[in-house]
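Technical note accompanying the year-one report. For the benefit of new consortium partners, we illustrate the data format agreed upon in the data management plan: each record pairs a sequence with a structure-token string. No post-processing was applied to the example shown here.
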Amino acid sequence: MFRKLLPLMVISAGYFLGSAHVLIAQSSPDIHVVVNMVQLNVAVTDKKGNYVTGLTPKDFAILEDGIQEKPATFAEGNGKVQNLTGVPDLEAPPTATFGDHPPQNFSELISGANVFVLFDTSDYMYRGFVFAQDAITEFIRSLGTADKIAFYSYSRDLSRAAPLTADRSQVLQAVRSTVAGDQAALYNCLLLTLKDAAQNTGRKVVVVFSNGPDNTSVVPPEDVAEFAQSAGVSIYMISTQQARLEPVSTAVFDRMTAATGGKAYFARNWKDEHTAFASIRDDLAHLYSLSYYPKPNTNAGWRTITVKLVGERLKNYKIRTRSGYRPQPSRFSGTSKIAAVDSAPAQDSGGTQQPSPSAAIRQTQ
């Protein structure tokens, strides 16, 4: 006797936005699918590059592999989050990581950004060390009160000088306590930073200040970029003219930031460094946040995400957002042989994982 497909909507804040977990039984007719909300951060600009503000959820259309998706939440910048599903706010899971001030409901959970600053303290930094510290300090002070910040530094090894916190004084003290020296292992340390960022809810961003190429890492930058895409973390990179002079580093920085939804900046002097940090701050403040529950999709490869503006008056505006995501294999323990696929958005502007409702489907024969 065969049982028909039974869809069961399970409301649980223990799963994370920006990722989907698909579990498929290989030796059993049982199929268990858990799909979580995908969050997209979307920048809308006019022909001159100015941010377009004041748009509403009805102005956007989202498609995944050509499938029309229904927005679940919407927000502009750090503004109030609109819950478009009709589901009441959910309490934050006690096991999630939030820093010093845990949110109490769904809206608080997806407001603000988790910003991880990664500072190059290798021997490349001897000349411009103090100027870089000043630029980072100004950037930290300029971020919105809803944002939480972590400050890490790296040379050959990673130093977690200030964990994710809303306490600006703690982060600023960590910036001023850094000293330069030793060789650079950028990609090793960036991967560790991304792994830390991936453990948190909310929009996740890593801002890297690097003065030169990597000369000691064993992790290839392609693997780092792929992990960032899977975890929904956007990478912004600010580098000095020293790195600009090396074509390999320039190309890597450009490709990595574009793949993860961030931007790369090459500063000729300390003024350019301040300008680059200000640009990142403005980008975070003007992004539209849209999320959706993916409709059933059997594609386990690259899933294309397209965001369009609806209406004649908006046709000349430009959109910058993620282009899609690729499911990532992961291990799963159970009584039957299970193929687990972990997937998260990847594209051109910020991304996050956050607790949200999820859908579970079970089919038995």
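Partners are asked to follow this layout when depositing records. Confidence is low (pLDDT under 50) at residues 1-35, 90-106, 330-365.
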